Amino acid sequence: MSYFLQLVVSGIVVGSIYALSALGFVLIYKSSRVLNIAHGQLIATGAFITYALAVWAGIPIALAFFLSLIITFFIAMSVERVFLRRLIGEPIISVIMVTIGLMSILDGLIYLTPFGTLNFSFPEFLPTTPIRLGGVSISWTQLVGVIITTILIGGFSWFFRKSTLGISMRAVSDDQLASMSIGISIPRVFGLAWAAAGFSAAAAGTIIGNITGLNFETLQAFGITVFPVVILGGLDSIIGAVVAGIIMGLIQQFAAGYLDGHWGLHGTASLLPYIILLVILLFKPYGLFGIHEIERV
Amino acid sequence: MAVNRWLATGNYFTTYKQEQRIFQTNLDRTVFIAFLMVVFTWPLFFEVSSKYMLVVDNILIAIIAVIGLNLLTGFAGLISIGHAAFVGVGAYTLASFSRVLGDSHVLITHAWPLMLLISGGVGAVVGAFVGLPALRLKHLYLAIATLSFQMIFLWIINFSTFFNQGQTIFIGRAYWITGKVARDDHYLFWYYAMLVIVVMCGFGVRNLMRTRYGRCLVAVRDNDRAADAMGMHPGLTKVYAFGLAGFFAGVAGALHAYLFRGVGFESFTLHQSITYLAMAIVGGLGTLTGSFFGPTAIYMLDLKVENVAEYAGSIFSETMNLATGLRPLTFGLVIVLFLMFEPRGIANWWRISRSYLKLWPFRF
Fold first, then answer.
1. What pTM value is reported for the model?
2. In order of start, what are the domains of chain B with their CATH numbers?
3. A270, A285, A297 ranked by CB distance to B134: nearest
């Protein structure tokens, strides 16, 4: 039983990180219908900036985390400004390919820094003894990660429900023409969506880096693992991203805990999301919470 | 009407048959034949080091794969982020023969044209199977489905003992009429073999696009409702497009296995899929000539970048890790710049220069 509970706890930890990663992805898709394949690179960038500020520049980690959020916010915003603004209205393959090209460029830039090949880990700033609750243990980094994730997701939901900017972003995702006619600047909303995605990606990256250590491959892999999550949740639903993130985290932990090592199976945790993805695409392509607007052939 | 069959400067077609000709003028045909002769004979006159011959062979393999991808993404308009996995299906078909029969079984070494066809066939079947979601899905969702096929394929390779968990599976040396192909002639032999296959593929696709089986792909890409009204089945056409792409990819994969005399997982990763897509885009989507220009351009660029990185690596300290960084950087820049400034690819430059030369010295 405690094994089961332990898996649930770690599933929720992993899942909340997925939720935070997927959040940025969904933000971009929701407002501008761009599938951002370079999201993993944004996550990695955010994590590395935090590390560089905290360790190399010696800034206190909380402040470094905050600064990194801001810097990645502007990086993502300028990425949109430089690469994607020119492609508004271009065919879908061009836009997808530009994000693929972007992924390559960011890869190259990161490989030019020491982060590309070496492994780093954040200095310990939290107690190292895990918290034990009736046979279930959770480390402080994981706990803090989950708390920050919850706060950020709450903040984003508030932002979309109440603030003017958030409402205008929702309006653009609903109907671009109508929102233009009431005076919303669409390029600005797209830029802001990217910026917000960069913000959440940096947060996700730092949290992942704290839990697993800073390794470019691991961080970047989150950008691809986000796909099953967002498809399960529905490509344009923030609630969907959160729920599906946690479901996916739980599924992965259960797969690793109960399937691996039995019946000659290994590494099922990395396979199952994609099988779920295919099944969802075949039977419920708009996911759990997505808007039902898929055109059938 | 007496039309100059050598130097037509404009569109003088009077029948559909004329319009559908492969070579519009006799000059085109002559130039093409001359080009083929150059391509077939140059290794006889120049001494090429095997390093460069390997690059040329790689380009030819990529051309075959990209012809398939261009059929799928360019002509049929279906984005595939898993083309390397289809290539891998071809390579691993050959590898499973090698695992079952032994790597120097007579089927593998002597009957390699048959093995290429079998690999292509398996690639086509797997391609069509992966394309099945196309019966229900469009655009983005389909692209994500191919991405998940890529991931599942890699998992199967990496975790099954039959495929040696992604480690190299050896393939025996091929035989020609003159006997076993010697080590020194290996790259040259496959150069000629692949050249013949590339020419066959090129004519095959050009002819396919003249028949209804090819034109239905374009019709479904341009407007699937209209295509439906004309009596085509859009869903089945898309599945068929995936099958076609899978066939070319499968042949390319088997050639890859023969050329490197082994199959390992690292040639069929997501990164390779993206490279194929980039080749198709840089060459020009929806054009046959683009499938030839794209791989050539990307491989040449790769070679240049490697040289630059080697040179720069000797100046800067080795912690900079230039070689691993410069490659993706230039690669990404090329994709992005092409998409921004020349979305129709190198094939468009080719088209422009051709029409310029046709009228030369007059402007119009």
1. 0.88
2. 50-359 (1.10.3470)
3. A297
